[in-house]
């Protein structure tokens, strides 16, 4: 349920950025229409943990400046966050929200969002890129989780 919530949060953040819609409107749309949606193919979307979804999206918006700065520091200087694929930008914001504002262990956050990257980019190099960037972000945001 939380894994599905993470995937939906990335989609919602992407939709907010691309359409200019408010947090409230996008969250309501996802909870009303996307959670458990049956696609034309007959495939049913996961329900997702609505509380986790709402928290991720809300915290990503609340902490966006800090998360974007964390992401920028994790990226190569030639690739500031505004030059990144918008799906990856949304993914980094959702993952950053979980790292910065929630109690989820960083290694869980990294693993979960690498899986989300695999869902969006099944044949690409993006999951490895996401792993490297999130590892850097996690070590900066929660260094105590990595000390021996």
From TrEMBL:
NusB/RsmB/TIM44 domain boundaries: 4-139
UniProt keyword annotations, A-Z: RNA-binding, Transcription, Transcription antitermination, Transcription regulation
Pfam family, one: NusB
Record-annotated membrane-spanning stretches: none
One cellular-component annotation, GO: cytosol
NCBIfam families in UniProt: nusB
Name of the protein: Transcription antitermination factor NusB
Source organism: Gemmobacter fulvus
